[in-house]
């Protein structure tokens, strides 16, 4: 398992330097609010509003923010045995709240050569996908102004990594829909 310094370096490399805008998102989630009348910086995803809620996913000591409008309610699965991962990030199916979800080993999907497997304690379903991200913990951060996001300039590689939240919530901001699309495309 990589140490915290290696992971921080990896994320810093992906985020790059500078504060330029990213390319626009390709899709709009029906569950996300429509943009407000205030102008947003160029390159923001179409579903983003000037102030938006994020859910913080914990993977060990690392934290990742995901727009709350892209997620269903998180479900605690502590004590539930997840299938062991093979070579990819898919862990198999699990029934939650009467619905079957394909469980994703989030650490393996986001961080190369990293595997958490059956030790996860939470599942967070991604709206409209039939998939749930497995993580160690979940917390809400409250409203985040769009001005507190340092957008990635280039998103050809890892298009799901939108940028970095700054200030009190400093952590990478992920687009869960793009993350799932990247997983499906790589199968």
Q: Can you describe what's shown?
A:
This protein is an alpha+beta fold and 187 residues long. The chain has one domain. The chain contains three helices and eleven strands. The protein has helices at residues 4-15, 106-110, 176-186, and strands spanning 51-59, 62-67, 75-76, 90-96, 99-105, 122-126, 131-135, 137-145, 149-151, 161-165, 171-174. The strands form three sheets. It has a five-stranded mixed sheet. Strands 2-1-8 form a three-stranded antiparallel sheet, with no helix packed on it. Strands 9-10-11 form a three-stranded antiparallel sheet. The chain is globular and about 40 Å long. Mean pLDDT is 75; it is low at 17-30.
Annotate the secondary structure layout.
Elements: H1 4-15, E1 51-59, E2 62-67, E3 75-76, E4 90-96, E5 99-105, H2 106-110, E6 122-126, E7 131-135, E8 137-145, E9 149-151, E10 161-165, E11 171-174, H3 176-186
């Amino acid at each position: 398992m990589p140490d915290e310094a290696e992971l921080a370096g990896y994320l810093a490399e992906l985020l790059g330097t500078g504060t330029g805008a990213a390319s626009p998102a390709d899709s709009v989630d029906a569950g996300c609010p429509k943009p407000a009348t205030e102008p947003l910086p160029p390159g923001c995803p179409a579903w983003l509003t000037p102030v938006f809620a994020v859910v913080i996913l914990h993977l060990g000591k690392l934290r990742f923010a995901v727009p709350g409008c892209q997620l269903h309610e998180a479900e605690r699965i502590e004590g539930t045995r997840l299938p062991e991962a093979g070579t990819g990030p898919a862990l198999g199916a699990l029934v939650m709240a009467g619905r079957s979800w394909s469980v994703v080993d989030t650490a393996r999907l986001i961080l190369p050569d990293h595997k958490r497997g059956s030790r996860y304690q939470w599942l967070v379903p991604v709206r409209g996908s039939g998939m749930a991200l497995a993580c160690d913990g979940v917390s809400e951060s409250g409203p985040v102004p769009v001005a507190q996001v340092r957008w990635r300039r280039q998103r050809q590689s890892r298009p799901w990594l939108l940028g970095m939240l700054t200030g009190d919530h400093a952590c990478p901001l992920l687009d869960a829909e793009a993350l799932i699309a990247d997983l499906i495309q790589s199968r």
